[in-house]
């Protein structure tokens, strides 16, 4: 253990393909990180649905907590972030009724059309400010209602994925604001549940609990888990479970190493979330038609952004090639892709690429059906995907700028996708503005530093970002035009 470290915080960061436990501490005004444990997260097809394996994820998280204890960290807080929209239901005895269903499940197919026979879509946006996507919690719940799912009759409370992890660590059930804002069930201005929406859809009102803000201490680690993991041992004090920006993008955006407003960001991973941070939601008809969403952020901010299919297509391609014995490595295929030329652009958000049986076949078929040049090599396929993403970013920024008083002048790319040098350069070229790449571990950094803010080590979001700026140096990509 290093000297002069006041507290260590653990970020439990769950992504769609993997999870990890990361330890973070402030030392001389800079953040020090260590990855303690990494584990896989898989979607399980069982019967008619695709589930997340929540018990396995919870056990993997506890393994990470045990390893942190064994390393001798004086852990003062644990913060949890996950992907958005998905949830679990607990009964009146606190039991989980079912493994949470994955947002890629087909149960929401066609649900938006059914919902907007009940709700006025334009008025709905002025209330919730959320981009209509069939995966959203609203449509998941409405599909359960339409199918008369008995879980809705016996459920006591709805807990989004990070709320669910926190509940089983503390025994306290509530809903963190940032993750709840992805549901399409919050009033964007009041920053609380939209009772009008919930009642109009005849959803059980008691499911929706207390909304808490990032930086709130949710509770302390239960005694049985403290004993099992070794955290909170005698003499070390209790371990607080702290609400962070528990939608992973909220934590990532908190860690953008910039202070000049407006802060424009691209959280790059399986999904691409591109937008700006604002103080109040933008609920105009122009924003609705441009498919922008207003999600909660750390420090009372609003993330005005567009959800875009991100590196999902490339990730699926890499996985398929590996399964065929034709494994590619990013550090070789990306430079190869940079050397090839192709003019093929595919719409990355097209339904054909949502969750096809085979992504490569879907891509080739799309090109064939739309008279586009079909990539002739793996490198050309990768180039096609990445330049298609950059083109989509260009379209999104053009729409974004129309919604803002003045256009953005730089873009901060954060998250795992910020390591993709070719995509970063293609993005800078497409947008014709500088691109700042990093930090890679933005989600964990934002998670940990929000905990430090809750504990009084950091005063506010501005100081948080100053610490990030001192701790990492982004790589800058300038347009080649």
Overview of this structure, please?
The chain has 481 residues and is an alpha/beta fold. It has helices at 54-70, 111-115, 121-128, 137-146, 151-154, 161-170, 177-180, 195-200, 223-229, 248-254, 285-289, 312-323, 330-339, 359-369, 378-403, 421-431, 442-454, 461-471, and strands spanning 8-14, 18-27, 30-40, 43-46, 49-52, 75-81, 87-90, 157-160, 175-176, 186-187, 192-193, 211-212, 217-220, 240-242, 264-268, 271-278, 293-296, 302-309, 411-414, 435-437, 475-477. The strands form six sheets. The chain has a seven-stranded mixed sheet with strand order 17-18-16-15-19-20-21, with helices on both faces. The longest helix has 26 residues, at 378-403. The N and C termini lie far apart (49 Å). Mean pLDDT is 95; it is low at 1-5.
Task: Describe the structure concisely for a colleague.
Helix content is 37%, strand content 21%. It is α/β, with parallel strands linked by helices and 481 residues long.
